[in-house]
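WARN no homologs supplied; continuing
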Amino acid sequence: MKTAFVFPGQGSQTVGMGKDLAESLLDQANQILGFDLKKLCFEGPEEELKKTEITQPAILTVSVAAFQQLATRNPQPATVAGHSLGEYSALVAAGAIKFGDAVKIVNLRGKFMQEAVPIGQGAMAAIIGGERAKIEEVCAGIEGVWPANFNSPGQIVISGQKEAVEKASAACKDAGAKRAIPLPVSAPFHCPLMQPAADKLKMELDKIEVKDATIPVIANVTAAAVTSAAEIRDLLVKQVTSPVLWEDSVKKMIADGVSSFVEVGPGKVLSGLIKKIDRNVETSNA
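OK structure emitted
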């Protein structure tokens, strides 16, 4: 039986996460970042923890701590993957990026993503119960909106300029989607409006060491396995402006023989999505 470790992205944060698990790693993160991430994880306030430049290093640190504990009692997984930000946790687990570099990079990634589009100008919405081809068609016909996350059958997130997202949300419902839920996000992630963030991120990634991964990482951008350091670097830049192919990634892992998924980090978001993609696989949380 092949097992995959999967790592959550933004939205899985909760005040109190990492207690009795991530103390020493959060202390390391505090020193690297120069602010008290540990206090924000353990005590909040929630509004502060929700800020993307705080959320990203917080989830990464707690996820890597959970992985380190899991690795002491579990055999190495056949493959790893992460949802958006979670891809960085997966790359730490696969030995491609050092934890200290990853925590610094995702803090900057959060800042760059927030700065790319002024607050209030961008938006994201979850389209529930719609057909993938129809949602893609709607987005192609409206300027300024794009599919951003293919999460599971019947759950696709769109992203872009606020008015365009509202227009596309209505058009998706007209095309048969059950609901369109505006998401409480501070920026339109995973769309071409994030290009300024991608450009800045590339410069920062060029400063750190990226090694070949020791186990295959299923990349968000391609839903294909990657181990080469050069390709990992390239895909992390593209990931900022590209849709997260999560449903495709899970299907790829299953096609490669994975029958058990362990969600490593806070929350159970990915386990829920994986069960919607294939109810026959095993899911658990660490």
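The beta strands are 2-7, 79-82, 122-128, 145-152, 155-161, 179-182, 217-218, 225-226, 258-263, 282-285.
OK
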